[in-house]
Write a structure and sequence with these properties.
One of its GO terms (cellular component) is plasma membrane. The chain has 319 residues and is α+β, with helices and mostly antiparallel strands. Helix content is 32%, strand content 28%. The protein contains ten helices and 20 strands. The strands form five sheets. A six-stranded antiparallel sheet has the order 7-6-19-16-9-10. It has a six-stranded antiparallel sheet with strand order 15-14-11-8-17-18. Helix 2 packs across helix 3, helix 6 crosses helix 8 and helix 8 packs antiparallel against helix 9. Bound molecules: adenosine-5'-triphosphate (ATP). Adenosine-5'-triphosphate binds next to helix 3.
Length: 319
């Protein structure tokens, strides 16, 4: 990759303030960066929209900040601009995208990645017009994200999600959805449409999913009782959710989901955002994601094997 200027969007609230860790990474990388600090939720989107294509843009924060920056790039693309490649400096609580692409979280490894990233093309997901890199979910997971105590998250990090998740298994709020994929209809208690293998950290939700595929894996969970929800939760922590006998994983480019239990919340890349009904598809605007070299090489080997072109095929006018 050529040595373009580096812009870093930093969320000082991600994962508690990790400014010192960021300074140490940038010092080790030895690059001069333009550092843009967010001052409010949604700010990363505004900042990313203005970063031009000749820069390399890194988001120092969690998956939520990365999602905002991704949406800023989508805004810029819709306005007709070329956009910069996007990378992650993982400072958040769960950092699922960093886990997905195998980015080591030690300062020196991140510094090496900043200086010498690989690159893959990704067609982000779109849900009701909002872009996502990782996943969109509804049911116990979205209720958990919507109701997690921010005070507790500050104190115990991911543990706050575990406690709220258990509460939502015992006292489920929303668990009756209808998923339409092509001509098929599924009545389920929970669903996650994922572009990533990983979920909630290092848990594997769908081993066949890939950020660089032109499909999403739709994980359908029909069981709505306490025992079923508890089993799904435990199976997820053992990376075995996908092979529960009542769970199915369907590959899809487009789906719609409606609620039979009122205006249920959505979680998008781990943040609570919007409510059902929703339409999910893949964005016609691909982005360049900066990843560790090993991940880029593996993706390219897989592409050679499957004869997939370098840049994703656009389907703007299709179906
Ligand atoms: N200056 C700020 N003050 C308050 N909130 C902010 C600020 N900048 C960004 N945010 C918000 O912080 C939220 C959480 O950020 P982010 O996802 O990056 O960190 P995290 O939640 O710790 O990590 P993860 O998503 O990996 O669990 C985002 O929704 C974002 O809108």
């Amino acid at each position: 990759m050529t040595h373009a200027g580096v812009t870093v969007i930093f969320n000082p609230r991600a994962g508690g303030n990790k400014q010192r860790f960021l300074s140490s990474i940038l010092q080790k990388a030895g690059v001069k960066v333009e550092l843009l600090q967010t001052t409010h939720p949604g700010h990363a989107r505004e900042l990313a929209r203005k970063v031009r294509a000749h820069q390399r843009l890194f988001v120092a924060g969690g998956d939520g900040s990365l999602n905002e920056a991704l949406n800023g790039l989508l805004d810029a693309q819709i306005e007709g601009h070329e956009v910069p490649p996007l990378g992650i400096i993982p400072l958040g609580t769960a950092n699922v995208l960093a886990v997905e692409v195998g980015l080591d979280i030690r300062a020196q490894a991140i510094a090496d990645y900043i200086n010498n990233p690989g690159q893959v093309w990704v067609r982000p997901g779109l849900v009701n017009g909002r872009a996502f890199f990782l996943m969109v979910g509804m049911g116990a997971d979205a209720d958990t994200v919507a109701n997690v105590s921010l005070k507790l998250k500050k104190l115990i990090g991911k543990g706050a999600y575990v406690l709220e998740g258990i509460r939502n298994i015992i006292f489920p709020r929303h668990r009756d959805f209808e998923v339409s994929i092509g001509r098929e209809q599924y009545r389920v208690a929970g669903v996650v449409a994922t572009h990533a293998k990983h979920y909630g950290g290092a848990f594997v939700i769908s081993p066949d999913a890939s950020l660089t595929d032109n499909t999403l894996d739709v994980v359908l969970m029909p069981g709505s009782g306490f025992m079923a929800l508890a089993r799904y939760g435990i199976a997820l922590t053992l990376n075995r959710l996908h092979d529960q006998t009542d769970v199915s994983v369907v590959k899809a480019e487009r789906l719609t989901i409606t609620s039979h239990c009122g205006p249920a919340p959505l979680q998008i890349d781990g943040e609570s955002a919007g409510k059902l009904p929703c339409e999910i598809s893949l964005s016609p605007y691909p982005v360049r994601l900066m990843v560790p070299q090993a991940y880029a090489n593996l993706s390219n080997v897989a592409k050679d094997h499957q004869d997939i072109p370098d840049r994703p095929i656009l389907q703007i006018a299709a179906d």
